[in-house]
Amino acid sequence: MDVCGGRNRYNVGSRGSSLVLLIVMVVVVAAALPVGGQAADGVVIAQADLQGLQAIRQALVDPRGFLSGWNGTGLDACSGAWAGIKCVRGKVVAIQLPFKGLAGALSDKVGQLTALRKLSLHDNALGGQLPASLGFLRELRGIYLFNNRFAGAVPPQVGSCTLLQTVDFSGNFLSGTIPASLAGATRLFRLNLAYNNLSGAVPSSLTSLPFLESLLLNNNNLSGEMPTTIGNLRMLHDISLSNNLISGSIPDGIGNLSKLQSLDLSDNLLSGSLPLSLFNLTSLVELKLDGNDIGGHIPEAIDGLKNLTQLSLRRNVLDGEIPVTVGKLSALSLLDVSENNLTGAIPESLSSLSNLTSFNVSYNNLSGPVPVVLSRKFNSSSFVGNIQLCGFNGSAICTSISSPATTASPPLPLLERPTRKLNKRELMFAVGGICLLFLLLFCCVLLFWRKDKKESESPKKGAKDATAKATGKPGSGGGGSGGSAGGDGGGRLVHFEGGLSFTADDLLCATAEILGKSTYGTVYKATMENGSYVAVKRLREKIAKNQKEFEVEVNALGKLRHPNLLALRAYYLGPKGEKLLVFDFMTKGSLASFLHARAPDSPVNWPTRMNIAVGLARGLHHLHGEANIVHGNLTSSNVLLDEGNNAKIADCGLSRLMSAAANSNVIAAAGALGYRAPELSKLKKATPKTDIYSLGMIMLELLTGKSPGDTTNGLDLPQWVASVVEEEWTNEVFDLELMKDAAAGSETGEELVKTLKLALHCVDPSPAARPEAQQVLRQLEQIKPSIAVSASSSFTGEPSHTTATVTTITDDTKSTITE
Ligand SMILES: *[C@@H]1O[C@H](CO)[C@@H](O)[C@H](O)[C@H]1NC(C)=O
Ligand SMILES: *[C@@H]1O[C@H](CO)[C@@H](O)[C@H](O)[C@H]1NC(C)=O
Ligand SMILES: *[C@@H]1O[C@H](CO)[C@@H](O)[C@H](O)[C@H]1NC(C)=O
Ligand SMILES: *[C@@H]1O[C@H](CO)[C@@H](O)[C@H](O)[C@H]1NC(C)=O
Ligand SMILES: *[C@@H]1O[C@H](CO)[C@@H](O)[C@H](O)[C@H]1NC(C)=O
Ligand SMILES: *[C@@H]1O[C@H](CO)[C@@H](O)[C@H](O)[C@H]1NC(C)=O
């Protein structure tokens, strides 16, 4: 399955961190240096591949000397001496040299690298034509040549690379038409040709690509009409055709794109009216049609776009009234209908759009009073150019005669609570405190250590493989050297709802950096080719349940969605049973590091801490109440924080994926940290009440600023707090920073004491005496109602239950690397 020759980047065992440390010490500009022995394949490079690489080297200009190791005989090209080259059994499988300041051209001898799976030279200054010989690369999965200076045509031969998943030629000077033959790459997943100078029509053949998720053709010189068959692209998430010369009307078939999240057709020459089918697209988040010639009315059915956050219809020729139903688009943050020909009043219902931050109805022919809420929130530049509009800052005062306008648009009943749509693109996650290092290496380098080690233990075998390259056994077949070489089928990536889209190749070849380790495995921050991050947890070997049980459980966990629970976005099952879990990446890191490892002059105030406690209680209530899952390992290290310092509980239900033996180890480890309920030493089975104990410990941690592991006068945290409190309700227990808050606001002191009592209640030695999560939540909300309200309004962005649309992407390609 993978570019990385059977080893993925997350395959770092106990030697991983020391290896990584070593690399960090040596490799500051990691990408610049040869990757030493780490990427060693142990096999001498095949002749054709060596010639190919030498020709490529010759055509490149390398002002910064990144390729200085590409010299000599080249016999060591596959053993790590040639920067950016990855081999499997003497055949080059990946070239990765992004951001290297490389100029010159891409030699057409690249076509000799017949095993090449990934070609990544983006963000350089390469010019000349794209070689037609790319079409010989039948193993190619990804071509990343964006942000260069390539000119000439997109070679039609690229369509012969039938296994291609990603093609990104954006940000070049390509001209000519988009070849219809690209549709030959039937597995294409992402096609990005934006920011070129392509002309002609969008070939309708592209609409036959069954897996296409992202089609970006914006900022070109494309003309003609949109393909009427566009509705065939059932997997499409994103489409942008903006800044072209596309004419005609928007095809009705667009309504079939049921997964579409972003539609950007702005700045074209589109005309006609809005197709009604467009408003069936419930998954749509962004709709941009500005700068066209679209006429007709905005239909009432617009409220079908339930998840819409951005609606821009500016600079068209729309007429009629703004429908009252726009007020039902509760997630809307941007609404721009300026520079149209709209009439009538601004519906009062728009007042209920509580997330609206950008609003513009200027330069229409609107009349009547502006709803008071909007006139307070937005200044005149949102309303000008409507001669008969009144009641906004700087306009005429409305006379009561204009009241028909208000009766024409009665306020909407507030059927739904206003919700804020969280930005799905801000996918973030963070793990257990310690970010060991910053590490930028090329694809898969890390993983080669194990192979490397094994190769070095059996040098003869390696040599034999080298000479017998043509007969090398594919993949991991039986007694292959190290058992980990070669590509193989069988790897399986399963996506759950939400999150980034990526292929298994993207995941396995992402740049990875260790964030931390836990009993269940190692967590990495993985940087995808497009620069976004995900957190990847590689489960330790032999701790998970057998595959069937594992899959049942993991599919259940993938459906778990709550604003305070870290969402599982995908999982990968490797051909040899390796298991990767993919989560959102949280930049802020864990609560433990937020509280205990921060700069001295960055206090965490009481409302922030309270908001975290409330979030935790909400998350736990959902976990226990709705999902019927016991966490079993709740600590401040696996509570993560998003940008707004909202709590996200990580590792939810992971114990369900593990064997009983693995789980008892986790219980023991949690005990060492002080979060373990006392009865667990006998019971060995986590319950909702043991989770409440852990929650109580985290609340004490928030209140006192002390870690549960810390002891004071030989007493653990609850004992110490209880001892202080028994004598008298003294302020000595609280974090000094909170005492400053308490001194400033008279209510804070009381809130602190009430929260402390609640926390002590949670850590009661007797499980039966501890409250339920729901009771904790209710009491916290009573203690500080303002937090409760603000937290809930910012937290209702994601539905608490999502339907389980599980898409499976299987790379069933048989191992082809060495054949
Ligand atoms: C290749 O380049 C490296 C680094 O610039 C240098 O140390 C080495 O001697 C060169 N080898 C040959 C055979 O030119
Ligand atoms: C864009 O295409 C039009 C014809 O469709 C042509 O007249 C124009 O010169 C092209 N512009 C560029 C910059 O190529
Ligand atoms: C706007 O409507 C007026 C009156 O109906 C019409 O005269 C005008 O041409 C329209 N403007 C545009 C740009 O369609
Ligand atoms: C604006 O709308 C009014 C009716 O509300 C109409 O009488 C007038 O002609 C319109 N003006 C333009 C420029 O469309
Ligand atoms: C109105 O608000 C916008 C931002 O919403 C700001 O850019 C603009 O300067 C303001 N204009 C006036 C006249 O206050
Ligand atoms: C509203 O749109 C008009 C015209 O497009 C523009 O001049 C103005 O700056 C916009 N105002 C805001 C607040 O976006």
From TrEMBL:
GO MF annotation, one: protein serine/threonine kinase activity
Q: Which residues cross the membrane?
A: 16-35, 427-449
Compositionally biased region (Gly residues): 474-485
Pfam families given in the database record: LRR_1 (PF00560), LRR_14 (PF23598), LRRNT_2 (PF08263), PK_Tyr_Ser-Thr (PF07714)
Start and end residues of each Protein kinase domain: 509-787
The biased composition feature labelled Basic and acidic residues covers 457-467
- So what EC number does this one have? 2.7.11.1
Q: Give the subcellular location.
A: Membrane
An example of a Gene Ontology cellular component annotation for this protein is: membrane
Q: What is this protein called?
A: non-specific serine/threonine protein kinase
EC class of this enzyme? transferase
Give the way it sits in the membrane: Single-pass membrane protein
